[in-house]
Amino acid sequence: MLKSLWSAAVCTLALGVSGLTLAADPVVIKFSHVVAEQTPKGQGALLFKKLVEERLPGKVKVEVYPNSSLFGDGKEMEALLSGDVQMIAPSLAKFEQYTPKLQLFDLPFLFNDISAVDRFQRSPDGQGLLKAMESKNITGLAYWHNGMKQLSANKALREPGDARGLKFRVQASAVLEEQFKAVRANPRKMSFAEVYQGLQTGVVNGAENPYSNIYSQKMHEVQKFITESDHGLLDYMLITNTKFWTGLPPDIKTELDKIIVEVTTQVNKDAEKLNQDAKQSIINAKTTEIITLTPEQRGKWREAMKPVWKKFEGDIGADLIKAAEAANQAQ
Ligand code: LMR
């Protein structure tokens, strides 16, 4: 009797202690991504971790996993939905399974420059798209820039005809497949982590990415030419699992929301400089010739690729495309 009373008391004590421990456990946010740390997204993830740990010490812990070290881009969405990670920032090209609307951002030659992208992303239409996947348990928290994409290849690409027959790596996006088909090239979907090897071994001959990704993945070492085409956008949506996010204690969520606003401002301010620095590093490496297009040559790429818009107008919505185009006019 005495023995069982004693063990009951020990048990209660143990439960009490573990209950206390549980209550004091910090919320853990695993942030997984596929790029290097010296890129806009890589820097954004690290700044988020720094600010969270300064302002919510002991309450929230952020673990950042760069370079596909935890999940590659084929798996990171599933990991977010199953609760294996709590935050990711896939490029806007990687959402087509979850909403057709975000295919908007991949339409070639839609935005003239990153200021137009900013205007659209801040508009009610742009902000509305952050909520387009809530029924799938995905909440968009912010847009983060990387920047405009450049074409790379082992052949000089000056006119659309130069791309004919070449194999280009594309992200998992039907729009991007059509974009390369429009110039009679062969698109091949491939995860980001495989691109360097794909280019090195000749599985693909070319690719498209902003300078920061080209340089940090050493793609310039296996590409003789980069055409500064600015033909499309590579930006991100910072997303979380809706159930996880709405289940956070309100004081923590409010602070995290504030931090995200601050980090987003910083990422979007620094992204262009990171791309320009990466461009300079590529020039210094002397591995790759950077080709500047004349307005006439660029016009030919636009003309060849623009018919892609029509193919996706039904999925995306003609009004949304119009609204994005209108953002090219500075107010
Ligand atoms: C790519 O797959 O090329 C990019 O989406 C990688 C990234 O996250 O910037």
Automatic annotation (TrEMBL):
Matches recorded under Gene3D superfamilies: Bacterial extracellular solute-binding protein, family 7
Q: Keyword Nucleotide-binding: yes or no?
A: no
Enumerate the Pfam families for this protein: DctP
Which first-to-last residue range defines the signal peptide?
1-23
Per the record's keyword annotation, is Transport included, yes or no? yes
What domain of life? Bacteria
Q: Which UniProt keywords apply?
A: Signal, Transport
Task: Say which family it is in.
Answer: Belongs to the bacterial solute-binding protein 7 family.
The entry's protein name is C4-dicarboxylate TRAP substrate-binding protein DctP
What organism is the protein native to?
Answer: Pseudomonas cucumis
Gene name linked to the record:
dctP
